[in-house]
Amino acid sequence: MKTAVLTDSTAYIPEDVRKKWGIHMVPLSVIFGEESYQEEIDITAEEFYSKVKQSNELPKTSQPSIGMITDLFEELSKDYDAVISIHLSSGISGTYQAAVSAGNMVEGIEVYPFDSEISCMAQGFYVLEAAQMAREGRRPEAILSRLNEMKETMRGYFIVDDLTHLHRGGRLSAGQALVGSLLQVKPVLHFVDTKIVPFEKIRTKKKALKRILELLAEEAQKGKQIEACVIHANVPEEGEKLKKKIEEAHDHVHVTLSYFGPVIGTHLGEGALGICWYIK
């Protein structure tokens, strides 16, 4: 059985890596006024953050249509028997549900949708694992079983400079945003049951980052191999600094650097930082 791996643009897997592993991608979009841009295709992360600074209002985001995903599945059916379709958390986007609907409509290919229940490079970790297994000729059921196993140790924590982006985008409740802005709190955020919620409320960015590093250290003390990623919203120097800290502290943690692209960046705002990891 020949299995394709599809994800959406919010995994932010570089194009050369997607090509190397034969990963297919469906884009989400950001909308400035009347202009719509497919992320990772029409607009880069750098261009996006520059455009936000010049714009008077925040952009909106848009998920791919069921029709777009159906067309992609039909195209894949010419060369593949099955497709593992891995998407950002169903609690912050309808993309996963659109893939489920498209999978029910298409013929000639078995569609296996997977809700990552997270986003960005944490989502990307699932995609890369699936792509490797698909290349080895593993069956879709075995791939899904492995992804669900990974989910048990997948962790992701992040902080934002300004809670109003999450509030305006409907990803954080009014009360939480108000408390944060009044007290200048830098809450550590994470995903629970597909939704973004505060993990701990911490007063400063420095202390919030220290807390995330402590959480990673707790996992690292177990002595198992860990795959980690530092993710930044247009602050690569800060991202590199965090990456270096982790590398110096833990020799059995492999760390990469990634970014919050246009769609996720719309909701988190410039300056956001996160760390995600799972036990290998």
TrEMBL record:
Pfam families per the UniProt record, alphabetical: DegV
Single GO MF annotation: lipid binding
Superkingdom, natural source: Bacteria
InterPro entries assigned: DegV, DegV_C, DegV_domain_contain
Record key words, sorted: Lipid-binding
Protein name: DegV family protein with EDD domain
Species, as recorded: Melghiribacillus thermohalophilus
